[in-house]
Amino acid sequence: MRVDEIMSRAVRTATAGESAELAYERMRAGGIRHLVVVEGGRVVGIVSERDLGGARGAAIRSGRTVGELMTEGVATATPATTLRQAANLLRGRTIGCLPVLDETRLVGIVTVTDLLEVVGDVARKASTDARWKPVRRMGRWPRVSEDRRARR
């Protein structure tokens, strides 16, 4: 599976000169945790809810701009990036999102939440598959040690 199959195409953006407080209010109102910072059509950073101090970060945001609080040197993906590659990038860099670029044009964003939804869908399908059933013994679930002995 590729990133372009699960990414959000409606990417919310901000500019570096935008008020940090205004950016936070837009995130809160939109129920999102990341804004891609764009200048002249080029991705220059990411600002997250955490960067802006969250609900109790009014003092951090006060009088500051997005450019002062954003993270530069953004890891990105392409539409052809596999979900495994995207997950490895997110986990390896301990980040919550990847802007998706086609050449230099911003075409989407993929988040940890997007990947978890895919995992949840796969797990749900597996649990309804007739071939996969949990093992129960004597009307109760086995203890881990009992289960390990049974496998030997």
From TrEMBL:
It comes from Anaeromyxobacter oryzae. SMART domains: CBS. InterPro entries: CBS_dom, CBS_dom_sf, Diverse_CBS-Domain. Residues 7-62, 70-127 form the CBS domain. It comes from the Bacteria. Keywords: CBS domain. Signal peptide: none annotated. This is CBS domain-containing protein.
